[in-house]
Amino acid sequence: MNKKRLSSLLLIIGLIISTILIFDLCFPSLNLGKIKLKYKIIVWSMTIVLFIYYIKNYLKPQLAPSVLNSEKDNSRNNNKPDTSFKDVAGLEEIKEELQETIDFINNPSKYKKMGAKIPKGILFYGPPGTGKTLLAKAVAGETCSTFLYASGSEFVEKYVGVGAKRVRTLFEKAKKDAPTIIFIDEIDAIGTKRNMESNNEKDQTLNQLLVEMDGFNTDDTVVIIGATNRLDLLDEALLRPGRFDRHIYIGNPNMKAREQILKVHTKNKPLDRTVNIKNIAKKTHGLSGADLANIANEAAIIAVRKNKNKISIEDFDAAIERVLAGLEVKNPTVLLKEKKTVSIHEAGHAVVSKILETDMVQKISIVPRGHALGYVLKFPDEDRYLLTKQELMNKISALLAGRAAEQLIFNEITTGAKDDLDKATHIAKEMVCSYGMSPLGQMSLDEYHIKYSYDIIRDEIKKILDTGYKNALEILKENKNVLNHIANILLEKETINFDELEEIFNLYKKPMDYAT
Predict the structure, then answer these.
(1) Catalytic residue among 186, 298, 346, 460
(2) What residues form the catalytic site here (predicted)?
(3) Would residue 346 show up in a list of annotated catalytic residues for this protein?
């Protein structure tokens, strides 16, 4: 029994006995007169002492959160990580960019001779899971600096002054332990643009951060690194030179980088001879470093589940499906009619994607995963950074091909195209509002213009989607035999891989070249 519970129990017992003795003293009816007065006084005194002790230690009124009373040091906030650039794979250009900062921290004298000043802040921005935190740790490791980690949400409190106090405490500690790398993750939580409707406490916290970044002593080697995936939300005062001097975009890795990342995450795993890291990198286009680490870990778990000694390529394929498509539903209760509809739907996606050459179709399946009753795994055969208007139209046609197939075969449509419609509408909206690929002209529209020109924009989006749907329907009509063939095999085997799809298409002659 802990100290608090014991003292509470003794206090309760003392209060009960004291109450009984007082009641007997006033109304003698319990025959307790034999107890001497001095013993009664001892019991009352002990009860009063216990009551005062309890009030003093456990019922302290707190008008502000405990953080105002004491700021506890967290072990994660004061360490020198052993992470280095050797642990960071696939970000060679960014590592090269950071070498100057590292050299400045390690050899400040040669830069000071030239009158150069160390960059006060570096801002990493880009999609989540791309290695921003790892890079910050690596910079601290390369320079043997103290690494102080803080999340933007840690500075946000409803009590006025708490966030600003935490910022001051963080920077005081950084100056004391210099050289120091301060890393603020999700900095958009405190660094959002200020306006008349913004939170007063948030503004105070941001103002304190701006003051601290301006007030660095030149003798203190302190670098602040921020990370966000919403650069557009940050206040202009935070982004100006002198605060965050360098803005570095960290995007999803290309094929070569994915290969290097996969090698890092599989170096301690027993791989079968069938595993080709380069082929896995090709299949994982558009995935982040965190996704790749998850795939490597899932492959190992699947291999253990199958009581295998080594991880095979089949385990990696299953892991990719698990990460991209979701958890496989065991013993699904799908009606035969629905199964036929799903097979036609997925076959439609595969036929149009194959003929228009939008992406390489790796696998077609009608095995339910997550919320989907079926799926088509497809990846581009190479990394692409620019897409033409026609290529975007082809992507829309491929997305709407599932619904078009349902319309063609069953003369009816279902709710199964919800996700396809979301993706197709997003592409069409970007074509109209961001890329200037519509009759509205060469313009990019922001949220303000979209709000007040909604009807015009909606009509243009609808025209693009109708054109894509019509194109998909025409392709499927011309290739109805291939569509039915694929759907029948799916009903029989539930899955079709890349090689099997190639064999099916080789049985039929393509009537027209729609890719041009």
Answers:
(1) 346
(2) 346
(3) yes
